[in-house]
Specification:
The protein is built from four helices and nine strands, in the order E-E-H-H-E-E-E-E-E-E-E-H-H. By secondary structure, it is α+β, with helices and mostly antiparallel strands.
């Protein structure tokens, strides 16, 4: 998922790390400092169209390295969230660094997430801008609920319950969708989907160039 244009990461905003408040947090995540940039898959690639496999091996160096790489790849692409199949890995895992509508920055990862939404009678749908790192250069208004809870595990197998409101709730829904083989394009009308794909064709090379410049500035 893309960072909303009016939002930027800050080292001094309020931060919740893996759902828990922390006093401070750097702009570049510590995981990203250790990571390598991976290629981001683009809509139309088969791995984005199927449900990802459940993670069963916890606490491994390989899983930690994947998370590190995903954080750096997300950062270089100016993302708010990134799912494993977006770096061509067939696992139920996503990372996030996303603000909510109250100025709180939420940072973390979650494995084997299960999404809980409010009951239909109490949920409120909000149309807001949504972009996707796998649909580079496009953005459309997508209806999402304004509250969401994701239950899953961290890389060591510990239980996580992550609650989101506003734009962060949108991020949680967007990334969980990815792991079920869906992009936000699947939630659009046929006309809006064509518009988004047209935007991508017009702007994708510009987006790829910006990513390359940012990666080079970090020496990656």
């Amino acid at each position: 998922m893309s960072v909303r244009h009016e939002e930027s990461r800050s080292a001094d905003r309020r931060v919740r790390l893996q759902g828990h408040p922390v006093d401070s947090y750097p702009v570049l995540q510590p995981e990203a400092e250790r990571g390598s940039v991976r290629r981001i898959t683009v809509v139309g690639e088969e791995i984005l169209n199927r449900s990802c496999q459940v993670v069963t091996d916890f606490g491994s160096p390989e899983l930690s390295a994947l998370i590190d790489d995903m954080f750096l790849t997300m950062y270089v692409a100016d993302g708010a969230g990134l799912a494993a199949n977006q770096v061509d890995v067939d696992l139920r895992l996503f990372v996030y660094d996303c603000p909510d509508d109250h100025g709180v920055r939420h940072v973390g990862h979650i494995i084997n997430p299960v999404l809980d939404l409010p009951d239909p009678g109490s949920r409120r749908l909000v149309d807001d801008f949504e972009g996707c790192l796998s649909v580079p250069g496009a953005g459309m208004a997508v209806p999402r609920t304004d509250r969401a809870v994701v239950r899953g595990l961290d890389k060591d197998g510990n239980t996580l319950v992550i609650e989101g409101t506003g734009y962060f709730a949108r991020c949680l829904q967007h990334e969980t969708d990815h792991l079920s083989g869906h992009t936000y394009l699947d939630r659009l009308s046929r006309r809006d989907r064509k518009d988004a794909l047209r935007q991508m064709e017009d702007h994708r090379e510009e987006v790829f160039a910006r990513r390359a410049v940012k990666a080079a500035s970090l020496g990656r």
